[in-house]
């Protein structure tokens, strides 16, 4: 399935991209009004913006409303846009370079998204295997990351047996202290470094974040 990009630009800019869109390794959706922009922005991987179109303050407001995806500014005639953007490509475009840059950008953003988790006031870096808060950090194991991520995603208490089955693939009848041991060690690290005693909470039905 192709990645989807939303194009917010002048008619000339949109017409130019329309001519080559069938040769691109991503799909393009062109928008012309507030309603279609807001509806489509939810399903895109990135936003392409013609800097000429971003001169209008009404357009800037729409562009800046997209905060969780890359915004690529297509710079035209040296105009410095007032809109937020994460990357910039100069116009006129060289087809092969343009295609390569966009594909690489989306792949990079997806990698960064999958390698970092934001939980409460903490950030977990899966690559470095670190849990961070401000300038402080602790080393976390692969199992600890899986445990934290599962408890956070479920949004409800999980029993010891459920955790054993989902993370360690043990049978629900397994008699082991694996879960308690991992949670004890994680809690100890959280307390020593962050002075946090309530990151993982015990309930009658199990553990939760």
Spell out the key features of this protein:
11 strands, 209 residues, five-stranded parallel β-sheet, alpha/beta, single chain, Rossmann fold, Arc Repressor Mutant, subunit A
Helix/strand layout:
Layout: E1 3-8, H1 11-20, E2 26-30, H2 34-40, E3 46-50, H3 57-64, E4 71-75, E5 87-90, H4 95-115, E6 116-119, E7 122-125, E8 130-133, E9 136-139, H5 142-154, H6 160-168, H7 178-194, E10 201-203, E11 206-208
Parallel strand pairs: 1-2, 1-3, 3-4, 4-5
Antiparallel strand pairs: 6-7, 7-8, 8-9, 10-11
Quick synopsis:
The chain is an alpha/beta fold. Helix content is 41%, strand content 22%. The two termini are 34 Å apart.
Provide structural commentary:
The protein has 209 residues and is of the alpha/beta class. The protein has two domains: 112 residues, Response regulator (Rossmann fold), CATH 3.40.50; 89 residues, Orthogonal Bundle (Arc Repressor Mutant, subunit A), CATH 1.10.10.10. The protein is built from seven helices and eleven strands. It has a five-stranded parallel sheet, with helices on one face. It has a four-stranded antiparallel sheet with strand order 6-7-8-9. A hairpin with a 2-residue loop joins strand 8 and strand 9. The mean pLDDT is 86.
Evaluate the radius of gyration: 23 Å
The general outline is: elongated
Count of distinct strands:
11
CATH topological fold name of the largest domain: Rossmann fold
H-E string: EHEHEHEEHEEEEHHHEE
- Beta content: 15-25%
């Amino acid at each position: 399935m192709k990645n989807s990009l939303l194009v917010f630009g002048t008619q000339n800019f949109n017409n130019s991209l329309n001519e080559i869109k069938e040769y691109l390794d991503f799909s393009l959706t062109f928008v012309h009004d507030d309603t279609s922009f807001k509806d489509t922005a939810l399903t895109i991987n990135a936003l392409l913006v013609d800097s000429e179109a971003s001169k209008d303050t009404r357009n800037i407001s729409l562009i800046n409303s997209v905060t969780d995806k890359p915004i690529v500014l297509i710079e035209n005639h040296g105009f410095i846009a007032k809109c937020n953007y994460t990357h910039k490509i100069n116009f006129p475009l060289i087809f092969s370079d343009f295609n390569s840059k966009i594909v690489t950008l989306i792949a990079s953003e997806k990698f960064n998204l999958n390698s970092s988790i934001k939980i409460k006031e903490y950030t977990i870096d899966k690559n470095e295997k670190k849990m961070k808060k401000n300038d402080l950090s602790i080393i976390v194991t692969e199992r600890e990351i899986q445990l934290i991520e599962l408890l956070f995603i479920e949004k409800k208490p999980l029993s010891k047996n459920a955790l054993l089955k989902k993370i360690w693939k043990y049978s629900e009848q397994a008699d082991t202290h694996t879960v308690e041991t991992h949670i004890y060690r994680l809690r100890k690290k959280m307390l020593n470094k962050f002075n946090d005693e309530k990151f993982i909470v015990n309930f009658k039905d199990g553990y939760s974040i």
